[in-house]
Amino acid sequence: QVRLFESGGGLVQAGNSVRLSCVVSGRTINRDAMGWFRQTSRKEREFVAAISWSGSTTYYADSVKGRFTISRDNAKNTMYLQVNSLRPTDAAVYYCATSAKFASVTGVTATRPVNYDYWGQGTQVTVSS
User: Fold this and answer.
1) Percent of the chain predicted with pLDDT > 70
2) Contact by Cβ (8 Å): 97, 118
3) Averaged over 37-54, what is the pLDDT?
């Protein structure tokens, strides 16, 4: 059974940083594109960032470009999201996902949840101002 487990969320002051991790078990991710999404109670799940199987290609939502960095360590079956300069609008539950369909995703393909096959349960990031 494939499981994704996010960690690293919590209460963070605006302007500070947090690093989210996503550990995958039950599947080797070294051929999978992976992504991060986020969701609040008032919005649909929103694309944040995606990374190709090798880590050589990344793609970001405009709202996080320059502040968030996605990375991965295939040897550890783990993906990361470094979140800097946190804003109150970044507060959400952050989900990681892996795609069995694509090795690399950019553009519209990256932003569609349907293109990812396995999801974690999410980690809450709360931002205090």
Assistant:
1) 100
2) yes
3) 96
